[in-house]
Amino acid sequence: MGMDQDIAEVLYSEKQLQRRVAELGAQISRDYEDKEDVVLVGILRGCYVFMADLSRYITIPCRMDFMSVSSYGKGTSSSGQIEIKKDLSDTINGSHVILVEDILDSGNTMDYLKKVLSVRNAASIRICTLLDKPERRTKPVAADYYGFLVPDAFVVGYGLDYAEKYRNLPYIGILKPEIYE
Ligand code: IMP
Ligand code: MG
Q: Which residue among 71, 104, 111, 150 is best mutated to probe the pocket of ligand 1, counting the most ligand atoms within 8 A of its Cβ?
């Protein structure tokens, strides 16, 4: 069985995603043109598709690093309890950090990561999220770059999962509620 029948509605097609991610890459390339040591920090696992595409639309040199934090279990809302499962491989002392996230929801994850990383003497820390669900925010954290504002629905594809499935859908769609209810 394919995955398509679990999708209620396609929100962003492959084409729409590529167009928007290209714009983000171009904007980041302009904004960081004169900066030395720019590092994209991908938050695993949701970032992997977005970061692979975004990084190829960025035309300035930059390093790639990754972190993994636990936030969601099998459910569809954040536990609020964040824990680092995999830390950065390299130091960010003096670096311009761009956190690359799949979706900014409650803000728990990004609020926590910004606090944790802010004591490591980065030159700057910004957030680039593909999707932003501002209605669900409970922490005062905002995206510096975002691809799309999404309604309060559970979405999957292009890296985003439900219970570790659907990450490999090439588009972003709203998951049918009966799948997780
Ligand atoms: P936050 O800590 O509540 O902002 O949640 C951020 C994380 O929750 C993201 O990195 C996602 O892994 C997950 N998440 C939040 N909303 C969705 C969604 O609609 N689909 C898939 N994952 C989501
Ligand atoms: Mg997830």
A: 71
Q: Give the number of other CB atoms < 10 A from CB of residue 36.
A: 10
* pTM, full prediction: 0.95
Any catalytic annotation for residue 105? yes
Give per-residue pLDDT as tens, 46-88.
999 999 999 999 999 999 999 999 875 556 666 678 899 999 9
